[in-house]
């Protein structure tokens, strides 16, 4: 009898835990679907405006002309399923550039795209300084030739107000 009672309590405990876990999981799904999703477009506009301000500041500080350059994001450099690493060593050689923190997005510009031989990697460090990395393609690998850092304005930014998204 004692074994049956223990087994029954164990089953009830597991069942109760499962219901609690399911409730917690449902709550976490509910958290992800909170009204903030309604603000995603507004946040994207906010982020794009910041990125544009940062890029304008960097281009001005280095007197760059980006005409003829194509911008690439880190995501665009990701290999697709079935891609051979050997066939895309140029893309792989650029991915490490996107590591680290910055104010706004880190920006990669390649003259004539991946087929070109010259590029710029631009970003604003968290201390506000502007950074320019000049890239050259050697064979199938992009190499950082020079790194230049200029003291610049930090560009104060207001944090995005997610509270305005609440009901």
Notes on the structure:
It contains four helices and five strands, in the order H-H-E-H-H-E-E-E-E. It has 167 residues and is α+β, with helices and mostly antiparallel strands. A hairpin with a 2-residue loop joins strand 4 (130-138) and strand 5. The chain is extended and about 80 Å long.
Q: What low-confidence regions span 5 or more consecutive residues with pLDDT below 50?
A: 19-28
**What sort of overall outline do the alpha carbons produce when their principal axes are compared?**
extended
Beta fraction:
15-25%
Could you spell the SSE succession in H and E letters?
A: HHEHHEEEE
Classify the secondary structure makeup into a structural class: alpha+beta
Our count of helices gives: 4
Please summarize the sheet with the most strands. 5 strands, antiparallel
Helix content: 25-40%
Q: How do the strands line up in the largest sheet?
A: 1-2-3-4-5
Give the strand tally.
5
Radius of gyration: 25 Å
Which whole number gives the mean pLDDT? 80
Q: Tell me the distance between the termini.
A: 54 Å
């Amino acid at each position: 009898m004692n074994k049956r009672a223990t087994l029954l309590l164990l089953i009830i405990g597991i069942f109760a835990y499962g219901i609690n876990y399911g409730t917690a999981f449902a709550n976490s799904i509910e958290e992800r679907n909170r009204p903030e999703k309604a603000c995603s477009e507004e946040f994207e506009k906010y982020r794009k405006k910041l990125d544009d301000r940062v890029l304008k500041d960097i281009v001005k500080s280095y007197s760059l002309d980006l005409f003829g350059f194509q911008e690439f994001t880190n995501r665009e450099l990701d290999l697709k399923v079935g891609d051979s690493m050997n066939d895309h060593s140029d893309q792989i050689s650029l991915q490490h550039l996107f590591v680290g923190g910055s104010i706004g997005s880190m920006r990669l510009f390649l003259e004539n795209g991946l087929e070109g031989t010259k590029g710029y990697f631009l970003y604003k460090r968290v201390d506000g300084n502007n950074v320019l990395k000049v890239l050259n393609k050697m064979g199938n690998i992009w190499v950082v030739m020079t790194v230049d850092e200029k003291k610049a304005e930090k560009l104060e930014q207001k944090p995005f107000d997610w509270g305005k998204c609440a009901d």
